[in-house]
User: Fold Membrane protein from Chlorogloeopsis fritschii PCC 6912.
Amino acid sequence: MNIQRWIARREPNWQRLEALLRQVEKKGLKSLQAAQIKELASLYRSISADLARARTQQVGNTLIQNLQSLTTRAYAQIYQGSSRQEWQAVLNFYRWGLPTVIQQTFPYIAFATALFLLGALVAWWYAWQDPSFMSLIVPESLIVRVRDRGELWMGSIVGIEPLASTNIMTNNLSVSFGAVAGGMTAGLYTAFLMVFNGLMIGAIGTLVGQNNLAYPFWGFVFPHGSLELPAIFFAGGAGFLLAKAIVFPGKHRHPDALKFYGSQAVQLVFAIVPMLIIAGIIEGFISPNPLVPTPFKYLFGMGLFVLLVAYCSHRKKG
Assistant:
């Protein structure tokens, strides 16, 4: 290889990359037009090849160092810029995209919520009418503790908060993912989970009410329940979206329906996971904490729920 001729032929590209990098380093990647960004990436690849050739041909340390500097700077701008854009896309999704998806899928979320409330209402009604009904839903050990000892069970969390919080998160995530995946059973398993969880909370709520423990019980539930229950409803809505794609694809072909409704379901999962993580931390550290006044727990839970409703109602202007 004629080194001088090769350098002369390739040097304009090196100079062009240097000029683009100076502009990016001074004004940012957004200062480049789309064609210039493509040119920057192309030059980076070609000059990376030049660097490899220069090392093979031993053209001199100075040139190799200059080419190494160019490729390092180009790599940093291209891939760090890409990383910044990806993080910006994530922020934009949680700021605007997710509330929009929640609003678009609200009928499915509302249906899941209605099934839960139906289960809670049925449990409340039958628990008051037939005392034996309680034992069909609530574990006997819990009934004995509340009815015979007059005490709640949440104090067992105190002292093992990190372990309890982790177990709570794992359990809630398992239930929620089960509700989402239940959509593949035409929504039958999703519906079962919504009704069953409603029956459970309705029966337990009735049990503590009958034994004058409703105030501290709901004081325990409010802080984390303001996020945990809506997350479960979102999971139910996601499951029913999948069920719609399978059972009622409408004018879409089944693969197209699954792609469309499945995309919405996945986006709801991006809400469910952080909500349940936060709820698990609250349930492990705040909800059972005897040092936190019960009125504060009610206010904290209601405040979180109001913020959640405001976030879900948020719309992008323009």
About this structure: Residues 3-89 form one domain. The two ends are 60 Å apart (CA to CA). The chain has a mean pLDDT of 88. The chain has two domains: 3-89, 105-312.
